[in-house]
Amino acid sequence: MADTHAKHHDYHLVNPSPWPAVGATSAFVMAVGLIIWMKSMGGGPGLFGLRGPWVFGVGTLGVLYTMYMWWRDVILEANAGDHTPIVQLHMRYGMILFIASEVMFFVAWFWAFFDASLFPAAVDNLPNSSEVIGMVQRNTLTGGVWPPKPAPQFQGTFDPWGLPMVNTLILLLSGTTVTWAHHALLEGDRKNLVRGLALTVILGILFTACQAYEYGHAAFNYSGHIYGATFFMATGFHGAHVIIGTIFLAVCLYRAYYGAFTPKAHFGFEAAAWYWHFVDVVWLFLFACIYVWAAGTPAPH
Questions:
Q1: Bridge partners (DSSP) listed for residue 121
Q2: What does the alpha-carbon distance between residue 272 and residue 193 come to, in Å, rounded to a whole number?
Q3: What is the SS3 assignment for 157?
Q4: What residues contact 128, with CB distance under 8 A and at least 6 apart?
Q5: Tens-digit pLDDT profile for residues 170-224
Q6: pLDDT tens digits, 77-103
Q7: Within its chain, how far is the Cα of 216 from the centroid?
Q8: What string of H, E and C letters represents the secondary structure of 90-147?
Q9: Residue 262's beta-bridge partner residues?
């Protein structure tokens, strides 16, 4: 009878956890808060007298708390030996599928950009009814060319060989440093693992700072302009992924410093490295397509 509850398989049966329910509830509160916030910004009264930013903030704190506690439990499971080779393999499959979903997420923004850039003079066949009064044809927004003709809301594009090129080099260099850290980990060299991760985190922060500076000096804005909308949505979501990846790597740096990774058990770091390489590749496409291929007359300084 002593072996009745003994584990005779390589799989991990997860213990009951409150975090899926807590996370889903927090995400719902976050969404409701965002709706109330947007409704009040449009001049509406809000909902039940609630303040959108406060509700959104409560939901955000709940989501962040869920993330921290859930990932803490995953780390504790790994330290307890529950992540067998079979479990680690399936976790890798999960990370691959997650990155694949992220690829499709960016496909949507590239699709929007190429649809606008390849067909800047498109005129839709709109029905002659009161439902479409006030709709604006695309050629009136772009002047029928791409990049659009200079206007008060659009004075020119970025010079791709200036700060965007510098940012490209920064991100490519960060890809080499995270690879250096990975090889150091596989060789059991914790000192160079920490050095490589620290450099990668610094480069990620530097990239974000450079992009923030770039946004602050853009000769166009997001609202009321098709070029600005497609540009900021594509590059902005990439910037959000850089920030997420930097935090991911910073957590790995903390764990590496205290010896949490071994050459045979380091899925957390491996997932962060995969995610970071994905961020690198997306930026290369953004740089080649939006900054270089679709470059026009640089904005006057």
A1: none
A2: 13
A3: strand
A4: none
A5: 999 999 999 999 999 999 999 999 999 999 999 999 999 999 999 998 888 877 6
A6: 888 878 788 888 898 999 999 999 999
A7: 20
A8: HHHHHHHHHHHHHHHHHHHHHHHHHHHHHCCCCCCCCCCCHHHCCCCCHHHHHCCCCC
A9: 265
Q: Are 228 and 153 in contact (CB under 8 A)?
A: yes
Give the SS3 label for residue 151: strand
Residues in Cβ contact with 220 at an 8 Å cutoff, skipping those fewer than 6 apart: 153, 154, 155, 156, 227, 228, 231, 299
Integer Cα distance of 202 and 210 in angstroms: 12
Measured CA to CA, the distance from residue 199 to residue 212 in angstroms comes to 20
Report yes or no on whether pTM surpasses 0.90: no
By three-state DSSP, how is residue 261 classified? Answer: coil
Closest C-alpha to 267, from 60, 12, 63: 12
- Could you give the CA distance from residue 30 to residue 52 in angstroms, rounded to a whole number? 9
Determine how many CB atoms are found less than 10 A away from the CB of residue 269.
24
What residues have CB less than 8 Å from 244, skipping those under 6 apart?
275
Side-chain half-sphere of 175: how many Cα atoms within 13 Å? 17
Amino acid at site 228: G
The DSSP symbol for 155 reads -
User: In 3D, which of 259, 250, 265 has the Cα closest to residue 190?
Assistant: 259
List of residues 6+ apart from 227 with CB closer than 8 A: 116, 142, 146, 147, 148, 154, 157, 220
- Answer for the pair 148, 154: CB distance below 8 angstroms, yes or no: yes
CA dihedral 25, 30, 33, 38 (to 10 degrees): -140
